[in-house]
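Worked example

This section walks through a single chain of length 824. The input is the sequence exactly as stored; nothing has been trimmed or padded.
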Amino acid sequence: MKRFGTRGWSLRRKLIVACVLVELFAMVLVLFGGTRLMQRTLEEQAAVQSHELMGLLDQALVQPIVERDFVAVQQVLDQVLNPQVVPYLVVFDHRGHPVARAGWNEGRPLPPRDTGPIDLDRADPTFHRVMPVTLAGQELARVELGLSTLHLRHARDEFRATGVFIAAVALAASVGLLAAIAYALTRNLAIVAAASREVAAGRYNVQVPVQTRDEVGRLAASFNSMAATIRHRMVALRKSQRQQKLHLASAHDERARLTTLLGALRSGILFVDAQQRVLYANAMFSQIWSLGPVATGTDVAQILPALRQQVGVGNTSLVDRLMAPPAGDGEIAQADGEITLADGRLVSQRMHPVSDGAHGGGGCIWLHQDITLDRQTQQRARLALVDPLTELLNRRGLFESLHVVLGRAQETGSSVALVFIDLDDFKHANDQVGHWGGDQILTMVARTLSSLLLPDQQVARMGSDEFAVIAPCNDAEPIAALAARMVQSISALRFDPDEHRIRIGCSIGVALYPADASSADQLVACADRAMHQAKLGGKNGYCLYQDDSAHSQAEFERVSWNGRIYGALRDHRLQLHFQPVHRVSDLGIVYYEALVRMVDEDDATQLIGPTAFVPYAERSGKIREIDRWVFQACIDKLVQSPPAVCIAANLSARSLEDPGFVDFLRAALQRSDVDPRRLHIELTETAAMGDLIAARPMIAALRSVGCAVHLDDFGSGFSSFVHLKLLEVDGIKIDGSFIRDLTSDPSNQLVVASLVKIARSLNKTTVAECVEDAETLEALRELGVDHVQGFHLGRPAHMLAERTSRDRLSVVTPLRRGADGARS
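Given that input, the structure is written out below as tokens.
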């Protein structure tokens, strides 16, 4: 709040206010004195009236009291009674007995007597008096009466109000008169004040037209002289400013250097002049290059050897540019670049020449920045979005790009095509040439698709043998032509390993935004549906999305299986069968693998294998409910089994992406009071590597619950060994394709031996599945595999198989794995 004050008041206002205050003070004194005098007069008048009243009462009451005529006494009292003057009277005889009263109730006690003078300011307006009735000096009786001062107070208040009104009228009249006088006195001063404001605003050509000979006139003459002086001095000041601008021109070079320096404070800064002397080096420059403080004036040649020591071999050319600063734009480009230091750090180097204006070159500023963390962050981000085999975008990268492209298309009103490519009979080709050959085929397909695309089109690997292309477009015709070229180019690919010529084809589905779908999820679903329509049409072709796909046989089967899966979950028609996993050393059962079966709704004796319904469950998302049912059933089975029994169950890729699964599993184990080490979790290598960045923390979370985590179908990809190093798992289950022909295929023996050796060096347990005969079991024992599983040892059954060795809790952990490894 702004403090109240008179500093900003005009002289005219001050004169008026001062006079009014003096006059108001005098009026208040007069009004106060008159009121006090009036009150004193009224009080004296009241005292005289009370004495006169008492004398009259004494004369009127003597005769009736002597004659003891109390009726006459009462009549006298009634005549004297007046609420405005005498509100009550009470007569007492010489013995103190009341004999008559008026205005006072008989049972009510009389108030205390007042002995002092009458006071109009007291709270009680009635004065209580006692009057003796005497005859010849002898008291015959006494009268107690009340004397009201209300009429006197009313007279006093009326006098006061009249005085205030008269004072207010007089004050208002005096204010008007004073205002007129003040205006006449201060009019010339106001003219001078207005002229001073003009001068303050920079307008110096002013003259005060005041011609009086009093003080104000002399002030106006002095003001006119002062204004003229200021006018002349301002002319001289402008001339001085023009001279100062010439002096400031020499400081422009320093200002340019300072501006460049402030713009690069986050980097290491080395500012050198044209003679290659250090003008400034900040602390970050010394920190990046592991130097002490660099003093001003130091020659660059003196610090250059220390910089060369920090640079790796063959990377000194950019550092040497410090001795020869670039003179042109071409040489500036050669001076900028990235330097790899000997300790592995990456430093960017930039040069900014500084011009000193008319004098030419003024030195330069070298900027160095440690970008090691930025590059590592970029690489990690790239790994999260790129498929490691084909170096294309992965599923996550595709969806991120798709959302961006669709957002841009919505803003511009353009169209976007999503093309799904699925390789026909890739599994058969993969079985023929092995997983290494399969990876080579996928790489060839990735290169072929990339070569067919325009710069604004993107290709991604969605899964095992599925690819996708995002292509902005205006209509369907160029996209249909692109799909036809893809089919033709992929069909022309040949892969000839070991004299086995492999020929592959593809089925392509195309969906358009916004013609076929209004969101990314809908567009993906439409493209996937169109791709299945192409497969139903005979494979090795393409199909544009049509909205009548619900009538196709494939769509009918999808809907049918989705209903059967929903019914099986609802009616509890899922079962678990358990296949034992044995130690190679003594063929004792280590744990059981839980395999899910569906009971046929039409024939309860028929069981449906997972290969029939799991693909549909994965596409619809019901696989997550199935996974939770399987793990809950496994935990219930563990509750019913001896403490040494362990069970392993498979976890789908969909559940691996479910952040709530870990909490569900932990709660289920705690609720059943089951040791989490008794429950193993198996993940397919493809599921774990579909999104490596997301899979690693999920696996760590599962292991933090206490469960062991194994990689199932290991070795199915060419980069399996890299996956084994990146993923913190407890063991691997070697893919069955390497086990079935192990005794007759030396290449499979070499692969299994390599897997076992690498797993053992990483302290991980190895499990071989699909063991069908004794020869395969013996070969696996010689290769050093830890555990085996297959029909030769035990088929899946609804009940747990009888254990063939002493019971013990067997969980794959680094500590236990070391012991088993030594034993095998």
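What to look for: Residues 64 and 73 are 6 Å apart (CA to CA).
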